[in-house]
Write a structure and sequence with these properties.
By secondary structure, this protein is mainly alpha-helical. It has one domain. 76% of the residues lie in helices and 3% in strands. The chain is built from 9 helices and 2 strands. It has a two-stranded antiparallel sheet. β1 and β2 form a beta hairpin. The radius of gyration is 18 Å and the shape is globular.
Length: 262
């Protein structure tokens, strides 16, 4: 989810992958319930797997898969079986279990694993408790700010936002993402039945998404990999595609917990 000047050589693969992901995501969002929860759990499992492979590459593949599957299944169990008051404390369990198994960068692992798990729970709660249109708002913000940043960065270019961590991200792309987020927020006010405060919240969510992008870039640079995996053509791994969604969904979860949504 980076923006830079240069050719559009990766645009075709990026667009085709995005179409497939949007189709699958749209169907799951529309269906809600176990279908949507199942998709979130699968994505969480894949992201935990990629995080483990980046920070613990010497671990046997089967062991890594088992640890990632366990984290995803636990998310499903607590989302559907545990009372609401116990969900957040219970989400700490896989963090406490998995973190000691990582030989390096345990603080980084614990923090990013927490972000992934809380984002997954936040998405499930957003769909179940707030409804279809709130999820569409969140998805529109993440995709919209990413697309705006991608094209603005390539067309306008200009100074880099943080070249040491994310050398392709530009200030022009970043500001374009904020601007489109404000427009999206304004457009959803009537649909969601809320006031103009949604515009500011939308920009904050977009900023969180961009921060999530930078955080994942920092981890990859730290461990010396280009992509979290090669599962998605044009996008790298699942973490590469959903890094912004993770942080955005986590922020929405916090806002919802404090009664700042709807």
């Amino acid at each position: 989810m980076s923006s830079s000047t240069g050719s559009f050589g990766d645009l075709r693969a990026r667009t085709l992958s995005a179409v497939v992901m949007v189709a699958l995501g749209a169907g799951a969002i529309w269906a809600g319930g176990l279908v949507f929860t199942g998709l979130v759990v699968i994505l969480v499992g894949l992201m935990v797997y990629e995080l483990l492979r980046m920070l613990d590459p010497d671990k046997r593949l089967s062991a890594t898969q088992a640890r990632a599957l366990g984290a995803g299944v636990w998310l499903l169990v607590l989302a559907w079986q545990l009372p609401e008051a116990l969900r957040v404390p219970a989400l700490l369990l896989p963090i406490l279990i998995l973190t000691p198994t990582v030989p390096r960068d345990r603080i980084v692992f614990a923090l990013y694993l927490a972000l992934i798990l809380f984002a997954g729970l936040g998405l499930i709660i957003l769909r179940d408790d707030f409804g279809l249109y709130w999820v569409l708002w969140l998805v529109a913000l993440v995709i919209g700010s990413d697309v705006a940043g991608y094209f603005a960065g390539r067309i306008i270019g200009g100074p880099k936002l943080w070249p040491r961590v994310s050398p392709k991200k530009t200030w022009s792309g970043t500001l374009a993402g904020w601007g489109l987020a404000a427009v999206i927020g304004a457009g959803f006010m009537g649909v969601l039945g809320v006031g103009a405060g949604l515009i500011a919240i939308s920009v904050l969510v977009a900023i969180a998404g961009q921060a999530g992008d930078i955080a994942e870039s920092a981890i990859k640079r730290h461990v010396g990999v280009k992509d979290s995996s090669n599962l998605i053509p044009g996008h790298g791994g699942v973490l590469d595609r959903f890094d912004a969604m993770i942080a955005a969904a986590a922020l929405v979860f916090v806002l919802a917990a404090f009664g700042l949504l709807g």
